[in-house]
């Protein structure tokens, strides 16, 4: 069994075939999908949780869990009402993570100060609900400012909780991976690790221990390999896992077993999760 640790299942790109897409995932051996609850802003962060309630228990479907969070560029909307909504969602059993949250200095959007303030406020809510966090960190090309600022925030407001989290769609270097692992985070690799020009990222993956990694799609984006540029979906996480297996010099089954165990450990789920 494989776990897709990060997929935006509420994307409108699945509106025409969401149930069939989930069945394809199950047929491909994907037993669990973490449905990311950021939507297009706080007004939609409940949608991932709603999908859990809609599809869990149906035959031929993977087990769905959800997250909830306010994306970096939506942090100007992180008012008291949005934070209260986040807190309420994190109280639900199916909502096992806060995210994706973090810092994005690559795209023009919310100011860096607003992003950091929004991140800190969400860390406080996640800590109170004892939920691990899903971190999005994207600096400007060739810069490390977002990573430096992120670690400063995490060292101050998160490390002491011991709750850890996931560095989603990891794109940093070994130094950022090492610091993340030291703080109890798992490093999650998406379809971009399969791309021809991604050898530096594969070099990082080769150094990450098996008990420190996850695999994800970030669907509907970042389809791996030959499907690059097309709509991604959870079934395709198997291709990314196979590439990671080659990088690590292990079998795809070993990658599946390790990443499934890591996911269950981080989120305190039963080892036999999934259908």
What order do the helices and strands come in, and which of them pair?
Blueprint: E1 2-7, H1 18-27, E2 30-35, H2 47-55, E3 63-68, H3 80-90, E4 95-104, H4 112-129, E5 133-138, H5 145-157, E6 165-167, H6 174-182, E7 185-189, H7 199-207, E8 213-215, H8 237-248, H9 252-266
Helix pairs in contact: 3-4, 4-5, 8-9
Descriptive report:
By secondary structure, this protein is α/β, with parallel strands linked by helices. The chain has a single domain, classed as Metal-dependent hydrolases (TIM Barrel, Alpha-Beta Barrel), CATH 3.20.20.140. It has nine helices and eight strands. The protein has helices at 18-27, 47-55, 80-90, 112-129, 145-157, 174-182, 199-207, 237-248, 252-266, and strands at 2-7, 30-35, 63-68, 95-104, 133-138, 165-167, 185-189, 213-215. The chain is globular and about 40 Å long.
Structure keywords:
275 residues, 8 strands, alpha/beta, 39% helix
Number of strands: 8
Helix- and strand-based class? alpha/beta
Radius of gyration equals: 17 Å
CATH architecture name: Alpha-Beta Barrel
Give the uncertain stretches in residue-range form. none
| Arithmetic mean pLDDT | 96
How much helical structure, as a percent, in the residues? 25-40%
Distance between the termini: 10 Å
Strand order of the largest sheet: 1-2-3-4-5-6-7-8
Helix count from the secondary structure assignment: 9
- Major pleated sheet: 8 strands, parallel
Would you tell me which CATH topology applies? TIM Barrel
């Amino acid at each position: 069994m494989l776990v897709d640790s990060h997929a935006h299942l509420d994307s409108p790109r699945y509106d025409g075939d969401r149930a069939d897409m989930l069945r394809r995932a199950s047929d491909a051996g994907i037993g669990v999908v973490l449905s990311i609850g950021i939507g297009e802003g706080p007004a939609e962060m409940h949608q991932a949780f709603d999908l859990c309630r809609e599809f869990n228990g149906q035959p031929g479907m993977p087990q769905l869990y959800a997250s909830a969070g306010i994306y970096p560029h939506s942090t100007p909307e992180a008012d008291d009402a949005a934070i209260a909504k986040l807190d309420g969602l994190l109280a639900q059993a199916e909502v096992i993570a806060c995210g994706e949250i973090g810092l994005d200095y690559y795209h023009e959007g919310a100011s860096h100060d607003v992003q950091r303030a929004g991140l800190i406020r969400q860390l406080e809510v996640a800590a109170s609900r004892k939920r691990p966090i899903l971190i999005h960190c994207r600096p400007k090309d060739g810069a490390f400012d977002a990573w430096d600022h992120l670690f400063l925030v995490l060292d101050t407001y998160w490390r002491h909780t011991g709750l850890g989290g996931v560095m989603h769609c990891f794109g940093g270097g070994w130094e950022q991976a090492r610091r993340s692992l030291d703080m109890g985070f798992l490093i999650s690799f998406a379809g971009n690790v399969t791309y021809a020009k991604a050898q530096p990222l594969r070099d990082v993956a080769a150094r990450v221990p098996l008990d420190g990694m996850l695999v994800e799609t970030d669907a509907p984006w970042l389809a791996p390999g030959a499907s690059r540029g097309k709509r991604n979906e959870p079934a395709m996480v198997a291709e990314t896992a196979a590439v990671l297996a080659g990088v690590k010099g292990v079998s795809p089954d070993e990658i599946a077993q390790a990443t499934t165990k890591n996911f269950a450990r981080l989120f305190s789920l039963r080892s036999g999760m999934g259908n």
